[in-house]
Queue: 3 jobs
Job 1
Amino acid sequence: MNRIASARAILAANDRGGYTVPTDRLYPFQWNWDSAFVAMGWATFDAARAWREIERLLEGQWEDGLVPQIVFHAPSDDYFPGPEVWGVEHTPPTSGIPQPPVLATAVRFVLERQGPAGIKRARATYPKLVRNHLWWERARDPERSGLVATLHPWETGMDNSPAWDAALDRVPTETTTEIRRRDIGHVDAAFRPRGIEYQRFIHLVDLFRETGWNARRMLEISPFKIADVGTNAILLRAERDLLALAEQFGDGGECAAIAERIARKETVLAGLWDEALGHYLSRDLIGGHLIPIRTSAGFLPIFAGLHGRAPALAGRLEGWRDRGIALVPSTDPDAPSFEPQRYWRGPVWAVVNWMIARGLQEAGEGAVARSVAADTRRLIGDAGFSEYFNPLDRAGIGGEAFSWTAAIDLLLGEGEGR
Ligand code: DGY
C-alpha cells in the first residue's frame, strides 16, 4: 500500500460510524481536537465524511455551548475515566471539560477545500461554533480579559507538560473515585503520565463533578487555573476563522462581536512573550506569573497570527534542527524537565507541528516551515503513524495507527501547512 492509501486506511479502520477514534482501545471514543484535525484529513479525500466527523462531535455539545473533550458514543471498558466518573447528564454522554478549540479552523478548512457544495453543511454548523466561542468567553473569561482560563491539564491536550508541574502541585492527590488506569495496559507506562499526576487529574474531576459541572463555580474553586498559551493561541486562530465564516453566514452584529474579541485577544496574547526566555509562555492565573518553561505551545501564537516574534522563534527551531533534534520537541530539550519519551514532556506531535508549520509559512518563515513539515513527514515515513515521536532517537512511541497522525500526513503530503 502506498503512503496515502495507508493513511486513509487508518482513518477508515478507526471509523466507528461517522466518528473516528484516535486509535483502537487506548482511546475508544470521540475526542474533540483529535476530530477537528481528523476532519481536515478526511477532507482531503471524502468531504461528506469530514462533515460527518464534525456533526458527530457536535452531538456532544451542551446547551450552554461547551463542546466537550470526549463524546462517549458507545460503551467501552478500555478507557478510564469513563462516563460514570464524569457524571454528566447528556445524551450522548460526554466528559465535562473542553479541549483546544480547533473546530472553527477545521470547519473553514473543510468548506474551503470542498467549495460551494459544502455551504449547506457549513451554514448548519456555524451557529454551533458561535455558541461555543461565546461559551469560552462566558465560562472561562467572564471579565473579558482576552485570555481564557484552563482548569484541568486535560483541557490543554498537553496533559503532563512540565509547564503544569508547579500549578499541579497545588492540587491534592486524594480522590473519591477509585483510579483504575487502562492506558498503561495498552502502552508502556514509561511513555505515559505518572501515577501522581493521574491522582491530581482525577481529584479535579471529582471536584468539578461535585459542583454539578457549574461553570462559574468551577472557575471560582479550581486550584489549577492557567492561561495556557496553546489554548489561547488556538482560540485566537479559531476566532479569525469564525469571522471568515461569519462574513458568509452571520450578521453584522456577530461579525463585530468576533472582531472585537480578536482585537482584545491579539493584545493580551502578545503579553505572554517573555523577553528573558525569548518565548511565549503560559500564565499561572493563581500566582499571576508567567511559567518559565519553553514548550511547543509557545510557538503557536504565530499560528494565531502574531508574526512579530516569528524570526526569533524560527531561529530557535533552526538551532535545535542543526543539533540533530527532530522538530518540534514538546518541551525544550535543554530544560531539566525534558523527557524524550514521556507524552508531552518531550516527544514530537504531528498536529502541533502542522500548526507551527502553517503559522511559520504565513509569517514568511517558509524555510523553517518546510523543515518542520519535512521532519514530520520523515518521522512518520520512518517510524509509522505513531501517536508521538522521540525527538532524539526518532522512534515512534505511544499508540499506533493513530488517526490524527494519519490526518496530518495526508495534509502535509499535499503541501498543506508549508
Ligand atoms: C488521556 O486520557 O490520556 C487523554 O489525553 C485525556 O484527554
Job 2
Amino acid sequence: MATSTVLRPQVPPSVGEAPGVEQDQTVYAFFQGDYVPLKDAKISILTHAFAYGTACFEGIRGYWNDTDNQLYLFRLAEHYQRLLESAKTLLMQHSYAVPDLCDITNELARRCNLRQDIYVRPTFYKSSEAIGVRLHNLNNQLCIIVQPYGDYIDIDRALSVGVSSWRRVDDNMMPARSKINGAYVNSAFAKTEAALNGFDEAIMLTMEGHVSEGSAENLFMLRGGKLITPPVTENILEGITRATIMTLAREQMGMEVIERAIDRTELYSADEIFLTGTGAQIAPIGSVDHRQVGSGSIGPVAAAVQRLYFDAVRGRLPQYRNWLTPVY
Ligand code: PMP
C-alpha cells in the first residue's frame, strides 16, 4: 500500500541550489516583481491560492544546443498567451502583456546561467491572505521559477496506459482549457490511480465517455493512415505540443491530421497512439487497458514524430526557428 510522505521536521533541503549546478551558483526566481534567490521566494500559508487552488500556471521547456552553445525556450509567446487566457478566466487584474512576460523569462533564465535542458514554471496566483472562496476582490501576483529538467516520463519505450475511472473535468465545472492549479487534483487522481494499478499513465474520458487526454498530455491516435486527435471541445488543454505536432505531421510528413471525437474502444483498434506535452514530449503508447497497440513497441509514425520534434525544439529545423527564443 503506497502512503504519502510523513511531514516531520528534518534537515532543510538546499532549495536555492539546483541539482547538477555548481554549489555556489544561485538559482533565481521572479517573485513580487523582482529577481530574487529562489530560497527567498516564500509565500504565507494564508495565501488564497494555497487555500483554494486559485492560481494558473504554465510549463515551458528550454532546450540546450551544444553546437550553437545556446539555450532555446520553446514557443514562449504561445505559452504566455495561454497563461494570460487562464488568468483572464480567473478574473486576474495585472499589467503584463505577452512581450513583458517573455522578456522577464528570458532575463530570469539568463541569470540562472544554466547550460542544460530546463523547465520554466510561471504562475499567476491570488496572493491576498484572505479566507473566503471567490475570484473577485483579491490581489494577484506572478512568480516564475527555472529548473534543470530531464524526462518527465520515459519516452524510450512504449508505455502502458489505462483508461481512468476518474472523468475529465467539464468546461462548465472547471475549464480544462485553462491551466488552473486546483484542477490538477483531477489529473492527480487519474495519474495516481494509473500508477497504483501498474500503468505508466492514465487516459481520461469526458463525462460523455469520449477520449479526452492524459493526466498532463494530449493524445494522438493513428488509424487508417491518418492522425486523429480529440478537438478542443473535448475538455482538453489546448496543448502547444499538440499544435506543434499537427504542424510538423502535416508539413513535414504530409499526413492528414483530423480533430474529431474518439471512442474508448477505438484506442483498442489503433495502429499507434502517442501522447504529447511539454513535460512528456512525445510518449509512445504500447498498450491500452491491457490491449496491445500495434506491435506493442514504438511505432514508425511515433518514432518519426519524436525525431522531428526534437529537431525542432533543439533548433535543427531552420524553418521552425521562429518557435525558439535564444536565452544567451
Ligand atoms: N493536457 C494537460 C492536462 C496538461 O497539463 C498538459 C501539459 N501542459 C498538456 C495537455 C500538454 O500541453 P502542452 O503541450 O501545451 O504542454
Job 3
Amino acid sequence: MKEIKNPKRPLVYYSVIVLLVIIAFNLIAVPAMANAQVKEVDYGTFMSMTDKGDIGKVQVESNQIIFTDKANQNFYKTGVMYDPDLVARLHDAGATFSSEIVEQTSPLLSFFLTWILPILVFVWIGDIMSKKMMKGGPNSLAFNMGGSSAKVYVKSADGIKFDDVAGEEEAKENLSEIVEYLHDPERYREIGANMPKGVLLVGPPGTGKTMLAKAVAGEANVPFFSMSGSEFVEMFVGMGASKVRDLFKQAKEKAPCIVFIDEIDAIGKKRQGNMYGNDEREQTLNQLLTEMDGFEGNNGVIILAATNQPESLDPALTRPGRFDRRVPVELPDLKGREDILKVHARKIRLADNVDFNKIARMASGASGAELANIVNEAALRAVRNNRKIVEEADLEESIEIVIAGYQKKNAILTDHEKHIVAYHEIGHALVAAKQTNSAPVQKITIVPRTSGALGYTMQVDEGNHYLMTREEIENKIATLTGGRAAEELAFNSVTTGASNDIEQATKLARAMVTRYGMSDEFDMVALETVTNQYLGGDTSLACSADTQREIDRKVVELVKTQHDKAIKILTENRAKLDELAKYLYEKETITGEEFMKVLED
Ligand code: ADP
Ligand code: ZN
C-alpha cells in the first residue's frame, strides 16, 4: 500500500496536537497546581478568622471563597454559604475583598472550541483509522465519504475478452446476449424487451467468474465497475450503504456499463430474525435492493454478481427483477482444462512438444485459477533449473505442487474414484436408455459439480408431464438404482456415492404406496398427507403402527425389485457398460447424443 503524499497534512495535524496539549494543560494541570497550595477549611474557621480580623485578601467566587491570612502568607478556601452580612463583617475586619467577574469567553474562541476543534479531532482520528483499514489501495479509503470508491475499469485497463476465458462455453453463450444488449440497448428498448437487471454467476472459486464479468465489459466495450461484498462487512455502519449508492450513481452516469459485485454472499446472506444481526450488512443489502428496484430495466446498467454459495443468498436478492438470471460457471472438464492451460501457456516460453491433453488429464478437478498457477509454477521451476524454456516435466512436477495444496479440499478425484464415478453415471444412463429407448437429455459428466454431486445423469426425457404412470415411476426408481448397480457389477463393492439416489428412490417408492395408491395392498387409501406444500412438502402419517410396518416392508420390496431389474439390464449389456464407462472416463463429459452413438455402434 502506498502512502498518499500530501505535504500540507502533517503541519495541520501537528498544530492540532500541540493545541490539544496546551488546552489539556490549562484545563487540568494549572488548576491542580494552584489548588495544591490552597488549604481547604470549614466556613466556621473562615468566620472566626474574619471576626478576629486575621484576614487579608478575600475573593468571593460563585462556588467558593478564596482568602489569605493577615500576612498574605497562607491561602485558604471554603465553600460559599448564605451569609447576607458577610460584606459588612469583612469591611469591619479591614479585608481587601472582591467578587469574581464572570469571564465572558470570546465568541470566536468558544466557536473554535465547540465546533472547529472537535471536527478537526474527528478528521484526524478518522484519517488514522482509515489508514489502518485501507486495504485495496488509495481508492478504498473508508473515509472517502460519499466519494467515488468503486474501481473503474475500462477496456484499456484490462482488455479481457471472451477468448481469454477458456472452457466456459455455456457461460459465455449465456452472457453473449448481454454483450449484444450493451452494444445496442436501443434495439431492445424499441421492441420493449427487458434485459435482466442482475445476473448471478454461480460456481466454485477460481473458475473465472470475475474474468467473465470483465470479458462482458471488454466485449461490449463499456466501463466496468467492481466491488467486493466482503469489503462492506468490515466497515462502519452506513458506509456500505453509501458506497452502494455511490456506485450506482456513477454507473448510471456511465451507462451502458457493467457493475460487478464479487462475493455477493458476504452482504446477501439470508437475513436472520435475531437482534444480533449484522446491521451493516443488512443496510448494505437493503440499499442494493433499493437501487436495483429503483432503476428501469432498460437503462443500460447490468449488474453481474458472483457467488460460490448461491443457496445461502437472501431470497429477496433472487426475486424477479433482481438477480433473476443464473449462469453456472462450473469446474472445467478435460477439454476445458486443456484450453485453459493453452491460454496461460501463451504467456510463457514453452517447448513445442508439450502434450496439453496429458497435463489436463493429470489435473482433473483443478479450477482455472489452479491451472494458471500450475503453468506459473512450471515457469518458476524452469528458471530455478537455469533453463530458458519450460518443458513438459516442469508442468507435470508443478501439478503435484499445486494439487498437494488443494487435494485437502477434496476438489479432486483420484484416478480410481474417477473410474467408479464413470461406471456409476453410465449405470444410471444405461438403465434409463434401455427402459425407454431414448437418449439421456442432459450431459453425463464426472466433473464434480457445485451441488456436491460427483457426477450427474438426468434420466431420459420424461416430457415434463404432470401425470406419471406407475410404470414410469418404477422405471425412474430403476434408473436411480442403476448407479449403484453398475458399481456392484464392475467393482464388486459399493460406495457412499449413491446416497442421494437412495434418498430419491425411497421417496418415490414411499409416495407410490402412501399417496398415489399404487400398491395392491393398500389400494386407494391415503396413508400420508402433505402438510407443508410450499416449504419442502413435509408429510405426516395417518395410519396405525401396524400399517406403518406394512408400508415400510412394501417400500423396501418396491425398491429391491427395481434394483434387481437394473442389475439385470446392466448384466445383459455388460460390454456396453464397460465401453461407455471407459469413454466417459476419458472424455469426462459426454452429451446424450455421444452416449447413444457409442451405445448403438
Ligand atoms: P473467480 O472469480 O471465479 O474466483 P477469477 O475470474 O478471479 O475466478 O479467476 C482467477 C484467475 O484464474 C484468473 O485471473 C485466471 O488467471 C485464471 N482463470 C480462472 N478461470 C479461467 C478460465 N476459464 N480461463 C482462463 N483463465 C482462468
Ligand atoms: Zn447416482
